[in-house]
Amino acid sequence: MRRPCAVVFNYAGRHRYGLNVLMGALESVPQVASDLFVAWEFDELTQHISDALGGYDKVLVLWSFYSPEFWEACNSLSKVKESGSALDDPRIVHLCGGVHATGDPQRTLRAGFDRISVGEGERRIVEIATKLSNGDDIRTLALGRLDDGKYISAGFTEPIDLNSYPPFAPAHKRFNPIEITRGCIYACRFCQTPFMFKASHFRHRSVEEICRYAQMMKQEGKRDIRFITPNALSYGSNDKSVNMDEIERLLREVRLAIGPDAGLFFGTFPSEFRPEHVTPRVLRIMKRYVTNDNVIIGAQSGSERMLAESHRGHSLAPIFQAVRYCLDEGFVPKVDLIFGLPGEHEDELEASVLLAERLIRQKAEVNAHTFMPLPGTPWRNAEPGKLPPRIVNELDVLAKSGRLRGDWKQQIAIAADLHARSKSAISEAKSR
Ligand code: SF4
Q1: 322 lines ligand 1 (CB under 6 A)
Q2: Ligand 1: centre distance to CA 217 (Å)
Q3: pLDDT per residue over 197-246, tens digit each?
Q4: I need a labelling partner for 30 at 20 to 30 A (CA). Which of 3, 46, 298, 349 fits?
């Protein structure tokens, strides 16, 4: 007997945590929980879609990717549609969500995706999958679409309560770092996070829920517990202050939940600290519970003017102080710097190089990035980061020390490519 709706997750890209979260949300929906399929590669994607057409009335294909992967995803989508007449079947709906679709919904739709979901996905995917499996027509569902070339928005999804949804997909054993906080009260002009979640406040998962999921991971043989958060030291806080009591409670309870042998990582990949939050006290508390011997500090620039232009909300002084505190307390500070910010002059780039040199002399490390104008951010239309040869040479020299790392060189090319393609897509759209 045919089933109403299959959901195929396209895991071929890098944005897998977001898909895990959607899968976790769907695991609790009885109508579709047994109809979820994972495609790791392109061939598997086309295979799953073809197979599903044989046994289901509708096939919902989920896509989510970061902006640098947009064109690659567009190529994959075209290839899917061209790889056989069956794969251009109107029963197949390619639904795209995540940071890129949220930041640039129109261009995502014009690239060929059938529908988009803007904002947080958990609540909406449950609603959509439930309705499709009840026989509703896709055209009646609240999703962004094109109608005769005109963009019809379905609006942003309402922010969810993190405690109401799992941070991964336990039934499918798809685990990832636990998201402990969502949303950001800061609004750095290069960053998609605050604009993706359209919420000017932090929402935290409770310590009890975090412990529950940490224990679950441990029982499944995962040795390390890591956290996803815009600023690790904002956990438990509603504003710019640090809630030391709640941070200590989090670390203490998670450590108790997972036992002394498991890894507990806080303030390091995939999260970081804002520099002004770092104090000797918080680092001493961390030492009682965490496994990591390094922390990531978001500094972003060695120029006071560029810090102000970026709306970072801190000056250089807290960066120097945070690095000093980390070194004194035995943590290696890994400092993020972005080169080529909009309007950055050569002497300001040089200031960041000097900061990197100083950090390396102090035995800190530097994660170097090149600015990319990301959709949805205030700097989305800015020029991509370009580095004069002198700066490239200086960074190359620092990289030889082994203490400056990062994808800054590849990002010069990626940012230029994205920008060129975006410009040509815009002029193409205008000429239509
Ligand atoms: S860079 Fe960090 S602090 Fe700034 S907006 Fe993004 S998440 Fe918030």
Answers
A1: no
A2: 28
A3: 766 789 999 999 999 999 999 999 999 999 999 999 999 999 999 999 99
A4: 46
The domain spans of the chain are 3-152, 177-271+281-286, 293-432
Atom number of ligand 1 nearest to Cα 274: 3
Taking 80 as the threshold, does the pLDDT of residue 431 lie above it? Answer: no
The verdict on the CB of residue 186 being under 6 Å from ligand 1 is yes
Whether residue 184 has its Cβ less than 6 Å from ligand 1: yes
CA atoms within 13 A on the CB side of 408: 27
- pLDDT number for residue 415: 87
- Fold topology of 177-271+281-286: Transcription Regulator spoIIAA (3.30.750)
The per-residue pLDDT for range 47-96, each reduced to its tens digit, is: 999 999 999 999 999 999 998 899 999 999 999 888 876 677 889 999 99
**Ligand 1 pocket: which of 186, 237, 278, 374 to mutate (most atoms within 8 A of CB):** 186
Kindly report the protein residue whose alpha carbon is nearest to atom 4 of ligand 1.
188
3-152 and 293-432 have identical folds? no
- CATH no. for 293-432: 3.30.750.200
In tens, the pLDDT along 3-37 reads: 999 999 999 877 799 999 999 999 999 888 889 99
pLDDT at 427 over 70: no
What CATH fold (topology level) applies to the domain 3-152?
Rossmann fold (3.40.50)
Alpha carbon of 63 to ligand 1 centroid (Å): 25
Q: Residue 179 above 80 pLDDT? A: yes
How far from 293 is each of 123, 263, 289, 334, 385, CA to CA, in Å?
A: 37, 12, 11, 11, 32
188 CB near ligand 1 (under 6 Å): yes
Q: Ligand 1 in contact with 251 (CB < 6 A)? A: no
pLDDT tens for 268-326 read 999 999 999 999 999 999 999 999 999 999 999 999 999 999 999 999 999 999 999 99
